[in-house]
Amino acid sequence: MNEIISISKELINGTExxxxxxxEIHKYLGVKTRFNDWINRAIKKYDFVENLDYSKxxxxxxxxxxxMFEYIVTLDMAKELAMLENNPKGKEARKYFIQIEKEFIKxxxxxxxxxxxxxxxxxxKEGKNVFFVLGGYMxxxxxxxxxxxELKKKYLKLLEDFHKIVMDARNISDCVITx
Length: 179
Fold this sequence. Notes:
Layout: E1 7-12, E2 15-21, H1 22-29, H2 35-45, E3 54-61, E4 64-74, H3 75-85, H4 88-125, H5 136-174
Antiparallel strand pairs: 1-2, 2-4, 3-4
């Protein structure tokens, strides 16, 4: 498959993930609105979470006191951004990201099979009862992704509850008791 948008490995919240520069997605999709408006609207509207779905980097500009921001997004967020644009380029980009993800998973599974053969064989020849379950990595990874999504929902609910508590506290402090 031809590379239509560059995918790289970047750290998001201390974890190395396949990721995409959001500016490249914006450009490829042919979005008419300014990049900053587009990405900020998407983050707010679709509840993307910094350091979970994307990382934001400040890049100083020569002669301009206001820095430029780069957004590095996970493949999941990239797929969602492409899908939300609801145009042929978005559909093509989403299919591209899905294909890249399938190829990545397939290569991990192949590496796991190779490593289990390389590592289990010498140990079992020595009479040691040791088993390496490298294939289980994929199921653990899927479970963790599901847990991350659930934690994201809980986090957003906690923020909403906290906001309500703060607003209630302000309302209480606005009340004046007179005798």
